[in-house]
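Need tokens for this chain, all 261 residues.
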Amino acid sequence: MQQANMQTDARRWRGRLFAVGSLGAVAALSWLYLVRMNAGMSHMAMPATMPAMAPGLPEQLLAAFTMWSVMMVAMMLPTALPAATVFGNLARRRSVHTGSTSSTALFAAGYVAAWTGYAAVAAAGQVALARAALLTPMLQSASVALSAVILLAAGAFQFTSLKDACLTKCRTPLAFFLAEWRDGKAGALVLGLKHGSYCVGCCWALMAVMFVVGAMNLVWMAALTLFVLGEKVVPARWRLGHVAGGALMLWGLVVAASLVR
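Here are the structure tokens for all 261 residues:
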């Protein structure tokens, strides 16, 4: 009996490591794609993958959507690992006859689907701004006023009740799953979509800051990824989001002040 329990535990650990490792591998491949795209933009190569270089509106939208979708996977999927781990543990306990690996994959797919929806909106915004000559070829704001508005709005959003409500869902995934749990593979997908939607509601304004610093700025991508992960795992009493909100608003005021000089 003890040996059977040990074998079961070993299978569970292998399944858990496989699920987490798979999500990490997808995120790593997305980062690799972004690094290659960034290098191509720097050397004016790979025109098919550069939104600003695509010939027509449909092509620009498709290229921008592809870029933002990969960005969201690279940046946000690592921050979902704690929630995916909690989900996998619960799915394993509730599903006696089947493993939790496929359910975790479906949860992650739902989570990514929510951010893919955000990617579509961001892509449309990027193309609109670019066609209005408000973005540089490196996808960075070419307007001081636009930069100030984005920074002030992103900073102010950090203090809103919507931000707090969505962040609470992201910070306490166990409570979310216990309240929203649905069995089955369809349930896993729906839970991922709902959890991802809360994450979008929490972080959409922060992602918009990429238009200020450059949508393909890898350093800022990494910094925002670490910050979003920090918001989810550090104690609420640290008020990390409020600190960032204050910093963004101060930055926005400094940028806005340059308009009246």
